[in-house]
Amino acid sequence: MNGTGDRNSKRTDFLEWQEYFMAVAFLAAKRSKDPCTQVGACIVNDDNVIVGIGYNGMPKGCDDDAFSWAKKSQNRRDNKHLYEVFFLVCHAELNAILNKNCSDIKGCTIYVALFPCNECAKVIIQSGIKEVVYMSDKHAHKCNTIASKKMLNAANVKYR
């Protein structure tokens, strides 16, 4: 249907490409087992073909039941943020880049639910991605987000 019930003309209530790719990123986030923050990422080439999808989670081969997902724990070694500091949690952007289904993602666009941290910005820049489309910038005031924007600007990677 075309949004008005007319079956003789094309639909007008379809998702635009950008809405579709962001929806894919949000769908990928549903795979995350993190109880506090679920982030997904979707990498798209210039032909509007999805070439990579990822979500935040423990690295392959690491039993996510062996690590605590709690923000605060009685045992400091069980604190989720301790693992993030030591890079045991792989962010959605990193997973999408590592899980790409083509040899080169130079010039692609990445859609993410949350603005990339500084570590993900480095990987995005190194991979040749040209643009970051994000839904939320709730950590804009944090040092790693400020650093991320500085690096993306210096590398001429657009973000919106």
From TrEMBL:
Keyword vocabulary terms for this entry: Hydrolase, Metal-binding, Nucleotide biosynthesis, Zinc
Catalytic activity field: dCMP + H2O + H(+) = dUMP + NH4(+)
UniProt binding sites for Zn(2+): H91, C117, C120
GO CC term, one of those recorded: cytoplasm
EC annotation from Swiss-Prot or TrEMBL: 3.5.4.12
Keyword Hydrolase tagged: yes
Domain (CMP/dCMP-type deaminase): residue spans on this chain: 16-159
Coiled-coil regions listed in the entry: none
Cofactor section: Zn(2+)
GO biological process: nucleotide biosynthetic process; pyrimidine nucleotide metabolic process
GO molecular function: dCMP deaminase activity; zinc ion binding
Residues at the active site: E93
Sequence similarity: Belongs to the cytidine and deoxycytidylate deaminase family.
Primary role: Supplies the nucleotide substrate for thymidylate synthetase.
Name listed for the protein in its UniProt record: Probable deoxycytidylate deaminase
